[in-house]
Amino acid sequence: MTKIFAHRGASGTFPENTMEAFKQAAAIGADGIELDVQMAKDGRLVVIHDEKLDRTTSLKGYVKDLTYAEIKRGDASHRFSEKTGSVPVPTLEEVFEWAADAEFLLNVELKNSIIRYEGMEEKVMSMIEAYGLQDRIILSSFNHESLALCSRLNPSIELAALYMDVIYKPEEYIEMIPATGFHPYRRSMSVDMIKNAHLKQKAVRPFTINREEEMKKLIAEGIDGFFTDFPEKALKIKAEM
Question: Which CDD domains match (predicted)?
Answer without folding.
Answer: GDPD_TtGDE_like (cd08563)
